[in-house]
Amino acid sequence: MPDFKQLFLNNKNWADRIEKEQPGFFKQLSEQQAPEYLWIGCSDSRVPANEIVGLLPGELFVHRNVANLVLHSDMNCLSVLQYAIDILKVKHILVVGHYGCGGVKAAMTKQRVGFVDNWLRNVKDVYAMHRQEVDDIADDNERLNRLIELNVMEQVRNLCHTSFVQEAWERGQPLTIHGWVYSLRNGRVKDLRVSHSCADKIDDIYTLDLTDASLSEK
């Protein structure tokens, strides 16, 4: 591990290299933020969002948490989501898990980690929803990786259920939700093919009637 001072040297070398390759890059970046993508990923240090998809600073808005969850009670995630949609006008939201996720594994194996166990209860809920499918897989690694995929799929659904996403679709704003999984072994991203660009395929119970204001009067 480099000592703390090395980080400053690394930063200087990086900034100098970027400025040499693209003169004026940082001045332009400081004046405007206009990403087309919101990345919702895991906090794992081995999953660097920008590098994975080859984007520079300013091209990817990022939110990360343990096990890449999207929860209706998480004010942090919802604040990022609302800002990304309403202010930045992102066109794509990427929910990105990664194979071998320690958070998902801890939730699946009843491993006690500490305070984060309360957060991972949400992954246990996903496991409970798909228990038979997951438990029918004989290999431990394949079973874990399938739950990781299912967790991403559920977070895509959770995104589609939010008022911010549905309001964007209602006003005709271009917005597509995607579910991906990243492999630490080969650096490749797998598209789970669960993309949504409108509310047509959402379970009716989660679809908001955005034209009915009568509820606020009751």
TrEMBL record:
Keyword terms: Lyase, Metal-binding, Zinc
SUPFAM superfamilies: beta-carbonic anhydrase, cab
The protein's enzyme class: lyase
Highest taxon listed in the record's lineage: Bacteria
Swiss-Prot/TrEMBL catalytic activity: hydrogencarbonate + H(+) = CO2 + H2O
Pfam families in UniProt: Pro_CA (PF00484)
Role played: Reversible hydration of carbon dioxide.
Name of the protein in its database record: Carbonic anhydrase
